[in-house]
């Protein structure tokens, strides 16, 4: 029996294409309405929904005076002036002779706080000792406690900047993976990994049986740059400065433990620094691990950074430590 198929008319073909496009557009729009607007780096980069990983706890207000910045010439003690790693990248004098360069730039104070997150610290130390190495942008703080940024919850949907259908499809896919409780090797999403974690007492997000971490937390090369640190410390001391080394622990270090899931053998930087009495380094690894158990959302569940509560606590640690240091107290940052 022969079956004769009639060709589709151009009008009918056009309507099929049009309705298909409209259906896909409606699905994309529906996902925009379903998923909250992005405000966390880990949810944005990793394609995880804010509904599941956005923080729910209240955050304190930050006093306006905590945002005040001073000129380099005025900076002293707890007065703040900030230089960035980007400035070091573009200024050869700062990179090769930091102490003399700061004096030449007009800095008259005594204390220099060199700050970096843990996973980027080694690369930056090598870059300061080798002008051919690139420097990743971050803050180098002169005479300052850590800068404090308030958290502001965003609207559920922002029509001026939508998440995008591609992000929504991937977020829906990741939501299904999480709902199926798959092994961790299946929960990687680009540069972000969701790890099974009994964290409902530590985080406020809805899916608190999982925690998000940037994969860079688990890819740190074994720390072997203490000689670079000692050389920079000596350079600054020769110009009359007292360096304070502020290494902010990675989120994974604080919540999972030192070196957990790390690709390379782990070296505890704070213990390494403590073996050299000429180095002043707050042991934030210990302090933050302890404090994160009593302050919910000490780090943001949808981001790599400290929460406002976390920043404020770090500010307290640094403020008290600087006052102890100025009063010539031994072990000024011990707790």
Considering the chains and any ligands shown, give keywords for the structure.
3-stranded antiparallel beta sheet, alpha+beta, 335 residues, 10% strand, 4-stranded mixed beta sheet, 13 helices
| Biggest sheet: strand arrangement | 1-3-2-7
> How helical, in percent, are the residues?
25-40%
Beta-strand proportion = 5-15%
Number of strands: 7
Low-pLDDT windows of residues = 131-160
Class from secondary-structure proportions = alpha+beta
Q: What's the SSE pattern? A: HHHEHHHEHEHEEEHEHHHH
Helical segment count? 13
Instruction: Give the CA-CA distance, first to last residue.
Output: 90 Å
Biggest sheet character: 4 strands, mixed
Walk me through the structure.
This protein has 335 residues and is an alpha+beta fold. It contains 13 helices and 7 strands. The chain has helices spanning 10-34, 41-46, 50-53, 85-90, 92-96, 98-104, 118-129, 165-179, 226-238, 251-256, 269-274, 284-291, 308-326; strands spanning 81-84, 111-117, 139-142, 188-189, 192-196, 210-214, 242-248. The strands form 2 sheets. It has a 4-stranded mixed β-sheet. It has a 3-stranded antiparallel β-sheet with strand order 4-5-6. Strand 4 and strand 5 form a beta hairpin. Helix 1 (10-34) crosses helix 8 (165-179) and helix 7 crosses helix 9. The radius of gyration is 25 Å and the shape is elongated. Mean pLDDT is 81; it is low at 131-160.
């Amino acid at each position: 029996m022969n079956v004769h198929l009639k060709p589709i008319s151009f009008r009918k073909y056009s309507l099929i294409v049009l309705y298909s496009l409209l259906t896909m557009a409606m699905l994309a729009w529906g996902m925009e309405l379903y998923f909250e607007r992005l405000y966390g780096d880990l949810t944005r980069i990793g394609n995880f929904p804010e509904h599941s990983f956005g923080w729910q706890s209240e955050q304190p207000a930050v006093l306006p005076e905590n945002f005040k910045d001073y000129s380099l010439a005025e900076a002293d003690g707890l007065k703040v002036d900030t230089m960035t790693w980007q400035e070091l990248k573009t200024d050869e004098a700062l990179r090769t002779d930091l102490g003399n360069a700061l004096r030449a730039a007009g800095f008259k104070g005594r204390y220099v706080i060199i700050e970096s997150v843990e996973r980027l610290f080694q690369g930056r130390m090598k870059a300061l000792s080798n002008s051919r190495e690139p420097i990743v942008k971050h803050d180098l703080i002169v005479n300052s406690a850590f800068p404090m940024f308030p958290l502001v919850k965003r609207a559920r949907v922002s029509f001026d900047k939508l998440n995008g259908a591609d992000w929504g499809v991937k977020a829906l896919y990741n939501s299904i993976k999480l709902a199926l409780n798959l092994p961790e090797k299946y929960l990687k999403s680009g540069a972000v990994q969701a790890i099974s974690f009994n964290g409902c007492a530590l985080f406020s997000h809805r899916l608190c049986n999982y925690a998000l971490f940037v994969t860079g937390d688990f890819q740190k090369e074994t720390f072997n740059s203490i000689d670079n640190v000692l050389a920079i410390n000596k350079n600054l001391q020769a110009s009359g400065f007292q360096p304070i080394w502020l290494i902010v622990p990675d989120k994974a270090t604080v919540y999972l433990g030192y070196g957990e899931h790390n690709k390379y053998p782990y070296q505890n930087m704070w213990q390494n620094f403590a073996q050299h009495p000429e180095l002043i380094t707050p042991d934030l690894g210990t302090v933050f691990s302890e404090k994160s158990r009593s302050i919910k959302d000490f780090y943001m569940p949808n981001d790599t950074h400290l929460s406002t509560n976390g920043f404020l606590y770090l500010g307290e640690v640094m403020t008290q430590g600087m006052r102890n240091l100025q009063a010539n107290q031994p072990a000024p940052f011990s707790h």
